[in-house]
Amino acid sequence: MEDNHHHIENSEEYIGLNVNSGVAQPPSVNPYMHKVVRRKKYSAAEYVEGILKGDRSILSQAVTLVESLLPEHHAIAQEVIEKCLPYTGNSIRVGITGVPGAGKSTFIEALGVHLCGEGHKLAVLAIDPSSERSKGSILGDKTRMEALSVTKNAFIRPSPSAGSLGGVARKTRESIVLCEAAGFDTIFVETVGVGQSETAMHSMVDFFLLIQLAGTGDELQGIKRGIMEMADGITINKCDGNNVEKAQLAKAQFQNALHLFPLPESGWTPQVNTCSAFENINIDGVWKMVTDYIAFTKANGYFDYKRRQQSKYWMYETIDEYLKTSFYNNEEVQKRMAAYETLVNNNEMTSFAAAHKLIDFYNSL
Amino acid sequence: MEDNHHHIENSEEYIGLNVNSGVAQPPSVNPYMHKVVRRKKYSAAEYVEGILKGDRSILSQAVTLVESLLPEHHAIAQEVIEKCLPYTGNSIRVGITGVPGAGKSTFIEALGVHLCGEGHKLAVLAIDPSSERSKGSILGDKTRMEALSVTKNAFIRPSPSAGSLGGVARKTRESIVLCEAAGFDTIFVETVGVGQSETAMHSMVDFFLLIQLAGTGDELQGIKRGIMEMADGITINKCDGNNVEKAQLAKAQFQNALHLFPLPESGWTPQVNTCSAFENINIDGVWKMVTDYIAFTKANGYFDYKRRQQSKYWMYETIDEYLKTSFYNNEEVQKRMAAYETLVNNNEMTSFAAAHKLIDFYNSL
Question: Which GO terms describe its molecular function (chains A, B) (predicted)?
Fold first, then answer.
């Protein structure tokens, strides 16, 4: 962050990790480690023009603008997004998650290359608040998607590396707008199946794909409870070699389990299949699952309904996040928070009394 | 509500539905339909003294005070709760949910009578915001718990019938404090498995019991997704007559399904069994599931950890609810909300721009 602010003060603009440039990238997470180059500043109109022309370098800079923490960047970013809005919405947005080790990167590479081969334009974005805690950003390591990253029709962008989950997710959602305006018809949003990022992802994609591994409970410890119920489709990856039998069994187990769940709002019964991203087996089968879902939900009207709900969700989310932030980030409130937490912990004050005392104090400021 | 306010203006105090009085109750949901009788007003100290003595009538009036919407009632209610706090916490809190038709009332009656027979003192509370929408309150109809309601050691209280889910849940949680101070060692919190009430319930009970029926998907349409993953235990009810085989099958299916889920934070593997509340079969088996869980989590420290987390959760919940309420209930904000929703719906403005415009307006007030 320090480093970043330093650059900003020098009014240099950080150019995100554009793995399409073909320039070797450090495997690092932290975008602030990348070299900072001076660039011409564009007007909102110039950004929009470039994006609509599909200029990848301008798109990349616009995404950087969206990710910027500077207020002056915020204003122009919003203007660019507003102007791009009319040209968006005509894509398929797929959320992809799974525990580390499930083979997300290999899968995204395999499916991505397949789709680009069919003439699709694919943008791969990520939600990974953990990256700011230098835990290792997903998509951060270009070498993990060697083939896809040099594919002309693919645009890969690591997770914005700043702020709360809400903030990171908001930036990802705004980047979707820019990518769609730039003509990308397929959007992947990747996240790691270990946190609340999935809920955020679920609120911005059309189809939620869970990449699973063969095996039961023990192997799944990593994944957060509740995520399986968000999935519109599950694929058991690494179904190859002497793992095939285990994978087929897992497929049957998941199918039975999903039958015990109520049908999702979409009316679509979540599908389960197997694939091998590494051996490139049944990758098209997974994609068929997605396109079947899209056709199904467009037919019953759920597709548009969900997108409208998502827009409203984000409006309310943003409002709620703002309201909380201004309360919890208030220094005077923070000074008193711990004391009340202790009282509540020791059963010396009810949660409600403590809350009301803090609120009364906040309102008195 | 109208009716209610009328009474309040007459400064009469509504006496909740105390099914222990043995007085015939209307099967109705709506407490405001019950006759309103004048009562002596107690001081906080008198309430506390009565509660600690286990005076059921005073307990009932104290709960009514907690449920009251009147500010002047709020202050004294909080004082009573604070004074009761030191005498609370030594109970087992069990959340019970299931879709309408799963047989919750019959089950609660059977288990309740069993526990009271063993000398336990049982308080049955409910979270059911739908009651205010005159959808039919759970526990509202005394005739559904004939035997239990006349049991000396049982205290049954229908869902408070006012306000948001957060408000209703808060009152239920505060009522738990009063009931524990009154010497009730076992608390049931009932809710219907159709809404977010389960999340609220989950945040105030030690053990989450899901009452399920034999059968797959179709029969479970009623239950909300995600609820099954909250369960510490599932019992397949109505395992009697020619339903036994189906129930046994369902038990096996649920057990297999649960194995696919990661272990909950408690380290406890959710149990599944069968019972028949109607035929009174294996009701004690269900209770053993609960007591085993309590022993297990008290041994590994999760029991206390969870209760402390719940207290904090409610402190933050209350703060967040207040912050939202003051924004969304602001008339000026409300006037503008719909217009921005439309803009967002028609893709004419991003969710984020709309949110910020509303917030700027709110802050300018």
Answer: GTP binding; GTPase activity
Sheet holding A271-274, edge to edge: A154-156, A122-126, A186-190, A92-97, A207-212, A233-236, A271-274
Report d(CA A14, CA A36) in Å as an integer: 5
Strands (E), chain B: 92-97, 122-126, 154-156, 186-190, 207-212, 233-236, 271-274
The rounded distance, in Å, linking the Cα atoms of B319 and A363 is 12
- ∠ Cα A271 A123 A227 (to 5°): 35
Partner-chain contact B354 A315, CB within 8 Å: yes
What are the residues facing A190 on neighbouring strands?
Answer: A96, A126
Report the candidate in B84, B86, B106, B85 with the shortest Cα–Cα distance to residue B96. Answer: B106
Q: Which residue type sits at A180?
A: E
Alpha carbon of A256: minimum distance to chain B alpha carbons (Å): 7
Nearest CA in chain A to B345: A308
Taking contacts as CB-CB distances below 8 angstroms, the residues of chain B near A316 are 355
Give the pairing of strands B92-97 and B186-190: parallel
Say which residue the tokens 């309310």 belong to: A316
**Closest chain A C-alpha to B150 CA, distance in angstroms:** 32
Are B327 and A327 an interchain contact pair (Cβ–Cβ within 8 Å)? no
Query: Could you tell me if A267 and A300 are in contact, meaning their C-beta atoms sit under 8 angstroms apart?
Result: yes
Please tell me which of the candidates A220, A323, A352 has its beta carbon nearest to residue B323: A323
B11: left (phi over 0), alpha (psi -120 to 50) or beta: left
Integer Cα distance of B254 and B273 in angstroms: 9
From A111, A99, A103, select the one nearest A291 (Cα to Cα): A111
Residues of chain A with C-beta less than 8 angstroms from the C-beta of B345: 308, 311-312
Question: Is B223:A261 a contact under the CB 8 Å cutoff?
Answer: no
Task: State whether A85 and B350 contact (CB < 8 Å).
Answer: yes
**Over the stretch B108-143, which tens digit does the pLDDT of each residue have?**
999 999 999 999 999 999 887 664 434 445 565 555
Q: Which of A253, A318, A327 sits opposite B323 (nearest CB)?
A: A327
Which of A351, A357, A358 should one mutate to test binding to chain B, selecting the residue with the greatest count of B CBs within 10 A? Answer: A351
pLDDT above 90 covers what percent of chain A? 52
Distance CA A50, CA A59 (A): 7
Mean pLDDT of the B75-85 span: 92
pTM recorded for the entire structure: 0.74
Of A82, A316, A359, the CB nearest to B350: A82
Straight-line distance from the first to the last Cα atom of chain B, in angstroms, rounded to the nearest whole number:
29
Q: How many CA atoms lie within 13 A of B229 on its CB side?
A: 21
Distance from CA of A151 to the nearest CA of B (A): 31
Distance from CA of B206 to the nearest CA of A (A): 16
- Give the count of beta carbons closer than 10 Å to the beta carbon of residue B141: 18
Helical residues (DSSP H) of chain A, grouped into ranges: 2-9, 44-52, 56-67, 71-84, 104-117, 146-149, 165-181, 197-202, 217-220, 244-259, 283-299, 302-328, 331-345, 351-364
Size of interface A-B (CB pairs under 8 A): 184
Instruction: Determine, for residues A229 and B224 on separate chains, whether the beta-carbon distance falls below 8 Å.
Output: no
ipTM: 0.74
Per the model's pLDDT, the better-predicted residue between A172 and B22 turns out to be A172
Q: What pLDDT, on a 0 to 100 scale, did the predictor assign at position B137?
A: 52
- SS3 call for A211: strand
